[in-house]
Design goal:
This protein is an alpha+beta fold and 152 residues long. Helix content is 24%, strand content 41%. The N and C termini lie far apart (51 Å).
């Protein structure tokens, strides 16, 4: 055994979307994110289709390389999804998405919990900040709402 110790971090944020639950929740699926996230182009591995389902496995190209995603929980009735995202050799992230009604809009709570897999992964986690995550959520809010408004 080595003396490696994983660094961990959880970041939480919210997006306020100008649409109802049934319109907004699917936008946080692998094919749904393709509609509003620039450059989002998942490769569906299992099943080899865009059908959003629990157990689905897909791959994306990230700035730091490849990421493999697993839909580890999908509860359509309660508008909840949990993903596990692995950047091999770097870290594992548990991504949770919970949508709730908010006065004619939808509040989307999004959390990322990271566990380092290597010293390099620990360094990447150490470089993450609450401020950057808030900026990411603000950017996602703009993108989602631009999409919902029909603005490219």
């Amino acid at each position: 055994m080595t003396s490696f110790r994983s660094r961990t971090l959880t970041l939480r944020g919210k997006v306020l979307a100008e649409g109802d639950l049934d319109q907004v929740f699917p936008l946080f699926s692998p094919p749904g994110e393709s509609l509003w996230v620039p450059g989002w182009d998942p490769e569906y591995l299992y099943p080899a289709s865009e059908d959003w389902s629990e157990g689905q496995i897909f791959r994306t190209r990230e700035e730091s390389g490849e990421a493999v995603w697993v839909v580890s929980r999908l509860d359509r009735k309660n508008h909840y999804a949990r993903y596990h995202r692995v950047e091999p050799g770097h870290y594992v992230a548990c991504v949770q998405v919970q949508c709730r009604p908010a006065s004619g809009k939808t509040e989307v709570e999004i959390s990322y919990s990271f566990v380092g897999l290597s010293p390099g992964g620990n360094d990447a986690i150490a470089a993450m900040s609450e401020a950057e995550y808030r900026e990411k959520m603000a950017r996602w809010s703009r993108w989602v709402n631009d999409y919902l408004a029909g603005t490219p």
